[in-house]
Fold:
Amino acid sequence: MQKLIALSDIKIGEGAVVKKLDTHGAMRRRLQDMGLVIGTKTECLGRSPGGDPAAYLIRGAVIAIRREDSKNIFVSLRDE
Structure:
Protein backbone atom coordinates (compact mmCIF):
# COMPACT_ATOMS: atom_id res chain seq x y z
CA MET A 1 0.00 0.00 0.00
CA GLN A 2 1.32 3.41 -0.97
CA LYS A 3 1.73 6.11 1.64
CA LEU A 4 -0.57 9.10 1.18
CA ILE A 5 0.85 12.58 1.54
CA ALA A 6 -0.70 16.02 1.17
CA LEU A 7 -0.40 17.63 -2.25
CA SER A 8 1.20 20.61 -0.49
CA ASP A 9 4.12 18.35 0.56
CA ILE A 10 5.27 17.19 -2.88
CA LYS A 11 8.46 18.77 -4.17
CA ILE A 12 8.84 20.80 -7.33
CA GLY A 13 9.13 18.39 -10.27
CA GLU A 14 7.49 15.48 -8.43
CA GLY A 15 4.47 13.79 -9.92
CA ALA A 16 1.58 12.35 -7.92
CA VAL A 17 -1.84 10.76 -8.30
CA VAL A 18 -4.84 12.06 -6.37
CA LYS A 19 -6.19 9.46 -3.95
CA LYS A 20 -8.49 11.44 -1.63
CA LEU A 21 -10.12 14.88 -1.42
CA ASP A 22 -10.72 15.88 2.18
CA THR A 23 -12.62 19.04 1.29
CA HIS A 24 -16.29 19.89 1.32
CA GLY A 25 -18.76 22.32 -0.17
CA ALA A 26 -17.77 24.95 -2.70
CA MET A 27 -14.02 24.23 -2.54
CA ARG A 28 -14.54 20.53 -3.28
CA ARG A 29 -16.74 21.43 -6.23
CA ARG A 30 -14.19 23.97 -7.52
CA LEU A 31 -11.38 21.40 -7.38
CA GLN A 32 -13.52 18.79 -9.14
CA ASP A 33 -14.50 21.30 -11.82
CA MET A 34 -10.79 21.89 -12.50
CA GLY A 35 -10.40 18.15 -13.04
CA LEU A 36 -8.85 17.32 -9.68
CA VAL A 37 -10.64 14.06 -8.95
CA ILE A 38 -9.47 10.69 -7.63
CA GLY A 39 -7.04 9.13 -10.09
CA THR A 40 -5.91 12.43 -11.63
CA LYS A 41 -2.18 12.74 -12.29
CA THR A 42 -0.60 16.01 -11.20
CA GLU A 43 2.86 17.54 -10.95
CA CYS A 44 4.19 20.43 -8.89
CA LEU A 45 5.68 22.97 -11.30
CA GLY A 46 6.76 25.62 -8.82
CA ARG A 47 5.90 27.86 -5.91
CA SER A 48 5.52 31.61 -5.67
CA PRO A 49 8.44 33.52 -4.12
CA GLY A 50 6.65 33.51 -0.75
CA GLY A 51 5.97 29.77 -1.06
CA ASP A 52 2.20 30.09 -1.38
CA PRO A 53 0.42 29.35 -3.70
CA ALA A 54 2.03 26.54 -5.68
CA ALA A 55 1.49 25.80 -9.37
CA TYR A 56 0.38 22.29 -10.38
CA LEU A 57 -0.03 20.74 -13.80
CA ILE A 58 -3.51 19.18 -13.83
CA ARG A 59 -4.90 17.65 -17.03
CA GLY A 60 -2.79 19.91 -19.22
CA ALA A 61 -3.57 23.15 -17.37
CA VAL A 62 -1.44 24.99 -14.84
CA ILE A 63 -3.47 25.67 -11.70
CA ALA A 64 -2.36 27.66 -8.65
CA ILE A 65 -3.61 26.18 -5.38
CA ARG A 66 -3.11 27.72 -1.94
CA ARG A 67 -1.40 25.64 0.73
CA GLU A 68 -4.53 25.89 2.87
CA ASP A 69 -6.43 23.98 0.18
CA SER A 70 -3.68 21.66 -1.10
CA LYS A 71 -3.04 20.27 2.39
CA ASN A 72 -6.49 18.63 2.18
CA ILE A 73 -5.77 16.84 -1.10
CA PHE A 74 -4.04 13.50 -0.52
CA VAL A 75 -1.87 11.89 -3.17
CA SER A 76 0.57 9.06 -3.72
CA LEU A 77 3.83 9.73 -5.53
CA ARG A 78 4.13 8.45 -9.10
CA ASP A 79 6.93 6.09 -10.07
CA GLU A 80 8.09 7.70 -13.31
Notes: Strands lie at 5-6, 15-21, 41-47, 54-58, 61-65, 73-77.
